[in-house]
Amino acid sequence: MEVWRGLLVLLGLYLMMIGMQGRRSEARLVENFYRSSCPNVQAIVKQAVSTKLSQTPITIPGTLRLFFHDCFIEGCDASIMIHSPNGDAEKDYSDNLSLAGDGFDTVVKAKQAVEAQCPGVVSCADILALAARDVVVLAGGPAFNVELGRRDGLVSKASRVPGNLPEPFFNLKQLNTMFAKHNLSQTDVIALSGAHTLGLSHCSRFANRLYSFSNASAVDPSLDPGYAKQLMSGCPRDVDNLVHLDPQTPDTFDNAYYQNLLAGKGLLTSDEVLFSDSASKPTVIDFAKNPGNFNGAFIAAMRKLGRVGVKTGNQGEIRKDCAAFNNDHGDS
After folding, report:
1. Catalytic residue among 69, 83, 244, 329
2. CA angle at residue 109 from 108 to 110, to 5 degrees?
């Protein structure tokens, strides 16, 4: 009997060790990851972001969009930051060429500030995630805690981008399908689209809605007529200017984006479909009427987005320079 008890104890210890190894291999992000190694990291990043914002307002939408584009390709691993002398890194793909340089510079400046106090400790991926939260708050949006512990990726290829970023002409099904690949729900799609309350769009991204919508109507009939005329004034035919995504409060993070959708003032087709499709319309109406519901859904969606494809533990590296892999082992 004593022998069997001993064997059972050993078996229990073995299973416990296997379980611990499994948990280690499936490392999770945690909010206090740098509690001991760089306790002031959040304050350092926030100060760097605030300083950058005082220099240019493009810091806000530029940094937030950079985070989205990074996480959708290779996961949230700062692969979007890599500069390739051959022009074949992730940032070099056509859909990423419009990313604002000020977004990249925000992360670079924040990384330099962090390195000065905590060298070789904090990843560029975590700095980007913190900066994305900070610009939302600085624009008047909700504050929220950011999970940390990401490591920087070792792959950045333009060839990985095609088909993996949402397009301005997408319908709801296409949006849902793409986001679902990253464990993001339809509510997450609608909430994250609310980031279009900030920033600018090139006229070429929606010109078809003004000049060549269909044989029956050159102008998309779902557009408010007055808004359509306003857009035509800012976007003459074949002129690729920039216009605000949110004509109401373009520099403030609020729920005006959803109010605009109700009023026929959704700029991109992928915006307008959120209201025109009966499956998503109730959520849009809710967010338009209840800013608290939108803020809560946006926070939840941002935290889920921040977990997409993360590298943790011994995966990846902690880059010294966000624009370059530490050694030649990186793949760009």
Report:
1. 69
2. 90
Per-residue pLDDT of the chain (332 residues; tens, 9 = 90+): 554 555 444 445 444 444 443 333 335 899 999 999 999 999 999 999 999 999 999 999 999 999 999 999 999 999 999 999 999 999 999 989 889 999 999 999 999 999 999 999 999 999 999 999 999 999 999 999 999 999 999 999 999 999 999 999 999 999 999 999 999 999 999 999 999 999 999 999 999 999 999 999 999 999 999 999 999 999 999 999 999 999 999 999 999 999 999 999 999 999 999 999 999 999 999 999 999 999 999 999 999 999 999 999 999 999 999 999 998 555 65
62 within 8 A of 100, measured Cβ to Cβ: yes
Please indicate whether residue 182 is annotated as part of the active site: no
87: left (phi over 0), alpha (psi -120 to 50) or beta: left
Secondary structure (DSSP) of 160-186: G-TTSS--TT--HHHHHHHHHTTT--H
295 lies in the same domain as 180: yes
Of 160, 180, 203, which residue is a domain's last?
A: 160
Residue type, 32: N
Distance in angstroms (rounded) separating the CA atoms of residues 266 and 270: 9
pTM: 0.90
Amino acid (one-letter) located at 55? Q
Is residue 165 domain-resident? no
Instruction: Say whether both 186 and 99 belong to one domain.
Output: no
Amino acid at 233: S
Query: What's the CATH code of the domain at 218?
Result: 1.10.420.10
Q: Is residue 20 part of a domain?
A: no
Q: Please give the Cα distance from 7 to 13 (Å, whole number).
A: 10
Range of the domain at 84: 41-160
Distance from the Cα of residue 245 to its chain's centroid:
16
Number of domains in the chain: 2
Say yes or no: 49 and 138 in one domain: yes
Identify whether residues 183 and 276 lie together within a single domain: yes
